[in-house]
Every structure is written in C-alpha cells, then in structure tokens.
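User: Just a sanity check before I run the rest of the batch. Below are the structure tokens for the first item. I only need the designed sequence back.
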C-alpha cells in the first residue's frame, strides 16, 4: 500500500502532466496571427488548423480512451508523452501550413489519449481529489499555455519556437520521471477490442442529456471561438498589435472557469446550470458591445463573466449526468459527453472561419454571438421549466 507522501507525489506529478498537455494545446493561440503574417493564410485556414486538433482529440477519445484499463496507465501515458514530444518538434520546425496541421493532428491525438488516462490515474490514486483535479487542471493548463506563450512571444526571442522548446524539455523530463510512478492497474486481455469506437448514453440519462445539451454546446462553442479567432478579433476591433492580448483573453476565460468550478464544487447541479446560462448570456452580450465600442477593458470584463458561465456549466452538466449512470456505464457516457462537447468546440469555429471570407470577422462574430445568446436563453428557459432538479445532487 502506498504511503500518503507517495500518493501525494503521484497526484502532483499526474496533475502537472495533465496541466502540461493542456498548456501545450493552447500555446499556439497567441501565435496564430504571427503564423498568418509569416505563412500568409486566411482566417478559414486558421480555424482549420485549430479544428483538426479537436477532431484528432475526438478520434483518440473514441479509440484509445479506455486502452489503459487493459495495458496499464504508465505505458499509455508514455506513448502520449512521446507523441506530444513529436508534435513539439514539428511546431519548432514548422515552415508551412502542412507542418502546422501535422503538428496539431499529432498533438490532438496525444492530448485525447492523455486526458483519458491521466483522469483515470488520478481517480485511481484519490477518489475524492481526483475528479476535482481533473476538472481544474485542464483549465489552468490552458491559461498557463496561452498566457505564458503570449508573454514569451511579446518579450523573448524566437517567438515561434521558444515556447515549444521549453515544453519539449518539460515532456522529456516527465517521460523519464513517469517510470518512478507506481502502476495502478494490472494488465488484462481485451486491448484490441477496446480500440473499437463506441458511444453509449444510458436510457436513464438521455432526458438529462437533452436538457443540458444546449447550454453545454453553447459553452464549448465559446471556448472554441476564443482559442481560434479571439486574438484576431481583438486586433480587428481595437487595433491592438500586442502578442500578449490573445493569450491573456484565453487565460481570463479559463481561469475564471476554473475559479467557478472550485467555488461551486459543493453545489448541486441545478444550482449551477441556471446561473451558468445567465452568465453566458451577459458575458457574450458584453463582448459584442466591446467589439463595437473598440473597448479592450470591456472585452476582458465580458470574457471574465463568460468564463464563469463556462466553468459553472461544465461542472453542472457533469454533475447532472454522471450520477445517472451505473458504474459500468460511466465511461461510455463520459465519452459521449466529450464527443458532443468537442464537436461544439470545433465545428462552429470552423464554420465561423469560413464565413469571415464572405462577411468579414466582426459581422461573423455578431452572428456567432447572437446564435449562442439565443441558445443560452433557450437553455435557461428549459431549465426553469423543469419541475425537479436534473439530478439528486450526488456527485460523480
């Protein structure tokens, strides 16, 4: 049996590894406009580079998401680290759109693999703290990656390479230290069968899923827009040329989301979902006003409010759904939830990127924001019509 100190060290390592993967995933966001200037590609291509990451991540969740249950946690984490090391090398040498797409595809698959196995490993070591770490670490990681890369791009040399060199060193160190970690799962047969893509929503959870789906789709669509087009939007609306602004916006969105999750961690699901919808409506409205008023401070205030809505909605949706699944149904329900969420994360931003070629960035943003506000308002109306809470408040 592991000692408390050993368990704590394992939790810290796993949390930092998860944070590292998500930091790398958001690191390109502040650099997109630099890539555009250097490689001369359109906003539509930019959202394609962003979108292939999400689709590759989905492919990993659907295929290798449960592989560590059969092979053990450490081998799967190690492969994910090796893939991310390869992605960092591609980013460092990227001199064309094809290289960027290749890097994002490999990075997306590595992150999808790592997200599932690290979440499972954290739960293995601590059933009480594991879910909270799994919820907060990705948001903190995205904040660190976007803000850190923005700072380096603004004030340090080699803006398109230095962040990836630093992340490369982090992943190499983690790949070495990993083998000191205690394996928490015994290998068993069935690895090949586990690679077959499957989705399953238990019958008793379908009604709850339909109720939270509009809010969840809106929240993740906001996240996708911020990580793809928000830096370009700020430049177009305010004239700011700082490399730091785009990363700072992503950091504000994700940090406020993480703070909301932490503050609401003991609340029941229905007490999070309705405030979440209201915060998203208010935050998005403030962002649209900021765009037309060319107000950078209001842009950050709107992002702060929107992030709080995103975090509360994410935790509320999970807490509504997971208690409704039996133990052997939870992995399938979680996969289905993430597939829907990441589709909302990627497809709307891809559509927005293509619409900018016809209507321009700011009019496209107006339409995008208006649709999401209507979706959140509809979700809020539906939640208020619910006679009873979506769950009994039992936490997954």
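Assistant: Here's the designed sequence for the first item:
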């Amino acid at each position: 049996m592991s000692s408390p100190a050993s368990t704590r060290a394992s939790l810290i390592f796993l949390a930092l590894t998860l944070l590292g993967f998500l930091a790398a995933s958001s690191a390109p966001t502040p650099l997109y406009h630099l890539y555009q200037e250097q490689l001369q590609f359109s906003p539509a291509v930019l959202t394609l580079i962003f979108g292939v990451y999400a689709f590759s991540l989905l492919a990993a969740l659907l295929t290798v998401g449960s592989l560590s249950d059969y092979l053990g946690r450490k081998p799967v984490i190690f492969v994910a680290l090796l893939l991310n090391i390869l992605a960092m090398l591609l980013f460092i040498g990227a001199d064309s759109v094809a290289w960027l797409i290749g890097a994002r595809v490999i990075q997306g698959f590595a992150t999808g693999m790592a997200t599932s196995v690290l979440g499972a490993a954290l739960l293995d070591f601590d059933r009480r703290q594991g879910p909270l770490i799994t919820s907060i670490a990705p948001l903190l990681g995205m904040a660190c990656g976007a803000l850190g890369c923005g700072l380096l791009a603004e004030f340090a040399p080699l803006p398109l390479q230095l962040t990836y060199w630093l992340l490369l060193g982090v992943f190499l160190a983690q790949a070495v230290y990993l083998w000191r970690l205690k394996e928490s799962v015994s290998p068993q047969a069935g690895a090949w069968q586990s690679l077959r893509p499957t989705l399953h929503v238990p019958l008793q959870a379908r009604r709850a899923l339909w109720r939270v789906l509009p809010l969840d789709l809106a929240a993740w669509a906001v996240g996708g827009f911020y990580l793809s087009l928000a830096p370009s939007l700020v430049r177009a609306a305010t004239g700011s040329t700082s490399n730091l602004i785009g990363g700072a916006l992503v950091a504000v969105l994700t940090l406020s989301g993480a703070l909301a999750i932490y503050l609401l961690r003991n609340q029941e699901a229905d007490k999070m979902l309705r405030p979440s919808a209201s915060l998203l409506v208010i935050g998005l409205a403030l962002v649209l006003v900021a765009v037309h008023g060319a107000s950078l401070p209001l842009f950050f205030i709107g992002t702060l409010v929107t992030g709080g809505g995103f975090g509360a909605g994410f935790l509320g949706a999970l807490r509504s759904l997971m208690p409704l699944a039996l133990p052997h149904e939870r992995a399938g329900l979680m996969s289905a939830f993430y597939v829907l969420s990441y589709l909302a994360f990627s497809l709307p931003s891809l559509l927005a990127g293509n619409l900018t070629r016809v209507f321009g960035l700011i009019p496209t943003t107006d339409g995008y924001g208006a649709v999401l506000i209507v979706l959140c308002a509809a979700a809020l109306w539906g939640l208020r019509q619910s006679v009873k809470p979506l769950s009994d408040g039992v936490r997954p």
